[in-house]
Design brief:
The complex is a heterodimer of chains A (about 120) and B (about 120). With about 120 residues, chain A is mostly beta strands. Chain A has a single domain, classed as Immunoglobulins (Immunoglobulin-like, Sandwich). In chain A, the strands form three sheets. In chain A, strands 2, 5, 6, 10, 11 and 12 form a six-stranded mixed beta sheet that branches. In chain A, strands 3-9-8-7 form a four-stranded antiparallel beta sheet, with no helix packed on it. The N and C termini of chain A lie far apart (about 40 Å). Chain B has about 120 residues and is mainly beta. Chain B has one domain: Immunoglobulins (Immunoglobulin-like). In chain B, the strands form two sheets. In chain B, strands 2, 4, 5, 8, 9 and 10 form a six-stranded mixed beta sheet that branches. In chain B, strands 1-3-7-6 form a four-stranded antiparallel beta sheet, with no helix packed on it. In chain B, strand 6 and strand 7 form a beta hairpin. Chain B is globular and about 45 Å long. Classes of the chains: A mainly beta (about 120), B mainly beta (about 120). At the A-B interface, strand 5, strand 6 and strand 11 of A face strand 4, strand 5, strand 8 and strand 9 of B.
Amino acid sequence: AQSVTQLDSHVSVSEGTPVLLRCNYSSSYSPSLFWYVQHPNKGLQLLLKYTSAATLVKGINGFEAEFKKSETSFHLTKPSAHMSDAAEYFCVVSVPPGGGNKLTFGTGTQLKVEL
Amino acid sequence: GAGVSQSPSNKVTEKGKDVELRCDPISGHTALYWYRQSLGQGLEFLIYFQGNSAPDKSGLPSDRFSAERTGGSVSTLTIQRTQQEDSAVYLCASSLPPGARDTEAFFGQGTRLTVV
């Protein structure tokens, strides 16, 4: 069975400063990993995905994440936060690779961006 | 269609009534998922369909919940004898088969169910 842990339920940053949202996973097999974003009253949107290719994955809106097998982590980063980044972010694991099985979601991290 | 379509977008029902929620996946997507998102909580897996395989129903919270997928396309989630704790946003997602190049899940806008 797989699981995912988002280490922070809330993160607050100032506009223009770096963002770090932490995610650790557990999986018996090589996982596929995703980050989704959910803006208030909006649907879930895929930010980026890791599917066993490059370990550093670039997504939309300047976000990126690095798959570190030794640390079982897939942290989401952005060099400079923008007000529009305020949303809830979900780390997701899927096994087997390719999303062919059910997606297991983390509990989410609420990102607040302050002026 | 262009994306995953769910209907209705909002549903208010009386406690004890049955409700049906509909999901139209993206054409060609063989995988279909139902999730539930309660206020202030993460996404709770309900059920997963993949092609003609038996669905993974391990997330259904009680026997009041059931889902079917007709013709490998449209899916209906049925909740019988609704309870107030069933109030949540029900999300549907679909994806391409395993082994396809791009297999991320695409989500619908959800159905907000309120049981009064």
